[in-house]
């Protein structure tokens, strides 16, 4: 029978140092030479079962102590080195395991420092938001991924690209689609570029929405997509071909720092152009005004999805020919935000969008239902909010559907111009919200998740408030 061997040198060294022994003293007690113990501690010789038993009997050590907890520390280190600041510093996870094995206390110290860094970064972000609300400009920044750079630029500018809208209207006139834009796009792609559009089954394209095969000149669309989403994918491909110059001009104006950020932004601009082609500016604005911005009516009239119709609403801000200045936010059920746009730049400083009392969170509990409410900020600012859940690509049996929720909002003063304002007007009062718990000073809020950054905690043992986080 082959004797089991274990390499655990750093753990043996920790045991020896914890007992205050020299290598010579421990070697004598274990009946081995100091040089052999030195090799063991440097992982150049294994710990045999006999030596493990000797360690246990001489020093009364639980053998589990030699197993250590390097797995947990290594997983924490993986989280640290997954940060964009440290991306590429460690070539493999095995190196992190070796660090956790050799120096667990130092590894634990690194994770504590990283948690403190993240906490301070969050506090700085909260302070930046607070200063912005008070009209102060800040230059606080942190390491960003290319997608973060693109999102920040898109969120801080008007959600309107004039050249793309004009070019898309002209392209729409050339197509003359009538009531069937999908067929018009298929014909245009085949006639002008030799591209044939095909719908592909899930097993043939399990992880993709769309794939353009340059060799066979075929555009493959996943059958997971709804007809409206398939239409958008075709429109994006057509716009990338027909509006290349206009997309390039708008992309250049964004002044992005890297090629990856430019690639992401180009995709977003193509998405914008696709919406502009599916819902031409003039026709969509006129229809929106006649329907009093009823998103369900608009999506039926233009044969688009609720999400597409809502996104198009926030772009209707052409100078001189503008609709209501809406802004939009889309989140998932965990509260992750991955789209913010509109109202000349998402009003982060005034509105925030992180309050759990917003109806965009309630939309998940009422799938498919449109929720309209009037909300009021601590400074008295009021907004009309319209929210609805959205279902992603068709899921197969055993798969969990991707569900998000979108919220479209505008200043409450304009609510009367919408069908939603009729319903909201019946209700007494507004929902009291805040920009985020860290920046909100509303007393007695049942939904509070964090203490406000601007107030000390109330630690009165004789009094307990309604909120989990009482403050003075």
UniProtKB/TrEMBL annotation:
Keywords: DNA-binding, Transcription, Transcription regulation. Residues 12-66 form the HTH cro/C1-type domain. GO terms for cellular component: cytosol. The keyword DNA-binding applies. It comes from the Bacteria. CDD domains: HTH_XRE (cd00093). GO terms for molecular function: DNA binding; DNA-binding transcription factor activity. Gene3D superfamilies: lambda repressor-like DNA-binding domains. Pfam families: HTH_3 (PF01381), Peptidase_M78 (PF06114), ScfRs (PF09856). Belongs to the short-chain fatty acyl-CoA assimilation regulator (ScfR) family. This is Cro/Cl family transcriptional regulator.
């Amino acid at each position: 029978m082959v004797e089991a061997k274990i390499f655990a040198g750093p753990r043996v060294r920790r045991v020896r140092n914890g007992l205050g022994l020299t290598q010579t003293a421990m070697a004598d007690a274990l009946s081995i030479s100091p040089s052999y113990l030195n090799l063991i501690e440097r992982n150049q010789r294994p710990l045999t079962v006999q030596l493990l038993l000797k360690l246990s009997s001489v020093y009364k050590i639980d053998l589990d102590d030699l197993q250590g907890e390097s797995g947990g520390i290594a997983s924490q280190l993986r989280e640290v080195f997954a940060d964009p600041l440290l991306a590429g510093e460690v070539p493999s996870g095995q190196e992190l395991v070796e660090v956790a094995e050799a120096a667990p206390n130092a590894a634990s110290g690194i994770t504590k420092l990283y948690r403190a860094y993240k906490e301070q970064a969050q506090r700085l972000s909260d302070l930046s938001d607070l200063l912005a609300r008070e009209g102060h400009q800040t230059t606080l920044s942190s390491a960003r991924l290319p997608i973060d750079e693109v999102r920040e630029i898109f969120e801080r500018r008007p959600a309107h690209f004039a050249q793309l809208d004009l070019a898309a209207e002209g392209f729409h006139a050339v197509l003359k689609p009538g009531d069937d834009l999908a067929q018009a796009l298929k014909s245009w792609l085949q006639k002008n570029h030799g591209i044939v559009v095909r719908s592909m089954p899930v097993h043939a394209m399990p992880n993709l929405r769309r794939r353009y095969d340059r060799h066979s000149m075929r555009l493959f669309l996943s059958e997971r997509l709804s007809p409206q989403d398939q239409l958008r994918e075709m429109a994006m491909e057509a716009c990338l071909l027909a509006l290349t110059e206009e997309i390039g001009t708008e992309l250049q104006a964004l002044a992005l720092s890297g090629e990856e950020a430019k690639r992401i932004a180009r995709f977003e601009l193509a998405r914008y152009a696709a919406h502009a082609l599916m819902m031409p500016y003039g026709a969509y604005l006129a229809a929106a005004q006649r329907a009093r911005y009823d998103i369900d009516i608009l999506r039926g009239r233009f044969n688009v999805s609720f999400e597409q119709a809502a996104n198009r609403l926030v772009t209707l801000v052409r100078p001189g020919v503008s609709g209501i200045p809406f802004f939009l936010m889309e989140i998932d059920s965990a509260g992750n935000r991955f789209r913010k746009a509109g109202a000349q730049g998402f009003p982060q400083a005034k509105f925030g969008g992180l309050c759990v009392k917003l109806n965009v969170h309630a939309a998940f509990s009422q799938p498919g239902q449109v929720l309209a409410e009037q909300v009021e900020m601590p400074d008295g600012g009021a907004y009309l909010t319209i929210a609805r859940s959205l279902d992603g690509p068709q899921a197969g049996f055993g798969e969990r559907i991707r569900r998000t929720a979108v919220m479209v909002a505008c200043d409450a003063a304009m609510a009367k111009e919408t069908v939603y304002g009729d319903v909201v007007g019946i209700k007494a009062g507004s929902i009291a919200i805040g920009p985020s718990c860290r920046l909100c000073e509303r007393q007695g809020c049942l939904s509070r998740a964090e203490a406000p950054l601007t107030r000390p905690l109330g630690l009165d043992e004789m009094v307990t408030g309604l909120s989990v986080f009482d403050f003075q």
